[in-house]
Each structure stands twice: as C-alpha cells, then as structure tokens.
Design a protein that fits this description.
It is built from no helices and nine strands. With 94 residues, it is mainly β. 17% of the residues are buried.
Length: 94
C-alpha cells in the first residue's frame, strides 16, 4: 500500500494596500527574493496569496512596489541581519 501523502496546510497572507501596483510575498519559503510569490488584489484593495507551508515558524515580508513592508497582522517578529525585523507566521500541523 503506498504511503499516504500529507498535504501542507495552506496559509493565506494578505495586505491592505489599495494604491499599490504590485505586491510580492517573500520569505524563507521562497528563497526571499529568489522566487517571491505574486499576490492578487481584490476589489477592496486587499492583496492575497494562499501558500502551502510545512508546520513550523516561517519568516516573511512583503515587497510593495519594490519596497519592503511589514505585515501589520503578523503573529510575531524576528530580527533580521539587515538591522530590521521579519514577520513570523507559525504553522501548526493539520
């Protein structure tokens, strides 16, 4: 019998930025700027992306029109090597 594949839970990231032209999600799960995730804007100006993530703590930030931005709804923060802070999302096993 083949092993049952466990699915990574999808985490939804969102940012209210109605005036932005483009918002990218970058983090330890994208190689930061190596493969950022393009977010999609809804009619109310909220940018969203659903990302499958392994359980554990994940650091991330948004790139809004090419400038780093924090998630005001972040669950936590962690210092980064650039003198700032990254946002932290804790993912629990499904």
């Amino acid at each position: 019998m083949p092993a049952k594949k466990t699915r990574k839970p999808k985490e939804t990231f969102q940012l209210q930025a109605p005036a932005a032209g483009a918002v990218l999600l970058a983090g330890d799960f994208t190689g930061w700027e190596t493969k950022p995730i393009q977010m999609k804007r809804d009619r109310s100006g909220v940018w969203k992306a659903a990302v499958p993530l392994e359980p554990g703590a994940h650091q991330y930030r948004f790139l809004v029109d090419g400038k780093w931005a924090d998630d005001p709804q972040a669950e936590g923060r962690a210092s980064n090597p650039f003198g700032g802070q990254n946002c932290v999302r804790e993912v629990t096993a499904a």
